[in-house]
Amino acid sequence: MLILKGKHINLRALEPTDLDFLYQLENNPSLWEISGTSAPYSKHVLQLYLDNAHRDIYDVKQLRLCICNDDKVLGLIDLFDFDPKNLRAGMGIVILEENDRDKGVGTEAILLLCDYAFSVLNLKQVYVNVLEENSVSLSLFKKLGFEQVGVKKNWILSNGIYKNEVLLQKINKI
Known about the structure:
Helices cover 28% and strands 37% of the residues.
């Protein structure tokens, strides 16, 4: 099992016991805008996903890890669209409960996963897509060395309104 240890949190592989957390997170309509979800997931479908979560990033082009603090799952962080030819991947992060946000959890999780992506997977770059209106996330990623490289105009349709999405990337200097 993959475990990345930080000072205050750990990133670990998904476990069968994460089904209820995954069910709660994936069926939270307030998060659907950033995940591209448009309908609820059944526990059965999520169990099938968990049954295949052990597959290698080189096979499924994705790595999803739980962000944990004292054995409590706080959120998820992903590498997606893994491209071993061009040595890049997208990153996404979500902390489920608002009271767990703005406490350094996201910062530590992003730093741990970037370190893994650059030192273990030998990626050249990691990129993120953030809604233009999400000033907290934009500030966080910029603070952690991600540079804004573009704006995707009218990219996300949410409640009948098109929203811009900002593309940021962090280049491995080594």
